[in-house]
Every structure is written in C-alpha cells, then in structure tokens.
Amino acid sequence: MPATSKAQQKAAGAALAAKRGEQPKSKLKGASKEMEKSMSEGQLEDFASTKRRGLPNRKD
C-alpha cells in the first residue's frame, strides 16, 4: 500500500528507522510514533518506499 502524501511517507520512514533500531524511539512524535506501535516492519517499508514525486504535501 503506497503512502498518500509526502508527510505520511516521511512519518513512515521515521517509524521504520525506530523499529529497526537506527533511531531512538523517544525521538518519534505524532503520527510516526503511532505508526511505529501499530504497523509491522513490512507495512512501514511499503509506506516509506513510496516515491515522493507527484504526492501532495499533506492529505486533505
């Protein structure tokens, strides 16, 4: 499932880094914190790997 906005893609990338241990979980805020708790590594990978070109900045 691809991300629907640049903000969602960026949050998924931050959550994925925390889940893999590349970034401390304490640095997560908002959506990325919730994504890290509720999504699997595979799901986060799908969201984070979405190409940003053509995506809106924020989902309306």
UniProtKB/TrEMBL annotation:
Q: Where is the composition biased (Low complexity)?
A: 1-18
Which residue intervals are annotated with compositional bias (Basic and acidic residues) in the record? 19-39
This chain belongs to the protein called: DUF3008 family protein
Pfam families this protein is in?
DUF3008
Write down the superkingdom of origin.
Bacteria
Q: Where is the composition biased (Basic residues)?
A: 50-60
Which parts of the sequence are annotated with region: Disordered? Answer: 1-60
Q: Which organism is it from?
A: Sphingobium yanoikuyae (Sphingomonas yanoikuyae)
